[in-house]
Amino acid sequence: MNLIASEINDVIERRIYAEGVFHQRFLKDKMVSDLHILESIQFLKKNKIDFNFVNVLEFEGFSNIQPEVRRWAKSTFKRKGNAIADAIIVEKLPQKITANFYLSVDGPILPTKIFQKREDAFHWAKEQLLINPLLIDG
After folding, report:
1. What is the pLDDT of residues 19-37, one digit of tens each?
2. pTM of the model
3. Cα angle at 70 between 69 and 73, to 5 degrees?
């Protein structure tokens, strides 16, 4: 895939690809907060990303996701941006069970699917861009 921009800090690694994949890898045993969501939005603005994309969220180990982030994932605010779906990558079965639980409790507003392999998540992301290529207006 064709990398447009990337950045990394002590909690998250972000990469945006021309094919419409916004890959965010949360580093092992870190706290994911609403600040990280704001940083991701700033990353997209700074790099002038104005096309549709699928969030591919990869969690190493058990990252702790604050309740505010889960509420944001199911909010209509996300529909006002260019994100059209979320793919979640987890390493182990216990993470998958936990992620499925949170999805059932905090049902996200965008199409969301859980994967254990990055390649499968990227493939699904590209499929979502073909299925729903239009911007979603608020």
Report:
1. 999 999 988 776 666 677 7
2. 0.80
3. 90
pLDDT per residue over 34-73, tens digit each?
677 778 888 998 999 888 899 998 887 665 565 555 566 6
Residue 105's SS3 state is helix
Angstrom distance (rounded) from CA 3 to CA 129: 17
Residue carrying structure tokens 């992301």: 125
Round to whole Å and give the CA distance between 58 and 116. Answer: 9
Which stretch of DSSP H or E encloses residue 3? strand 3-8
29: left (phi over 0), alpha (psi -120 to 50) or beta: left
In order, the DSSP letters of 109-132 are SS-EEEES-HHHHHHHHHHHHHH-
Residues in Cβ contact with 135 at an 8 Å cutoff, skipping those fewer than 6 apart? 52, 82
Q: Which two tokens stand for residue 136?
A: 């979603």
Residue type, 73: A
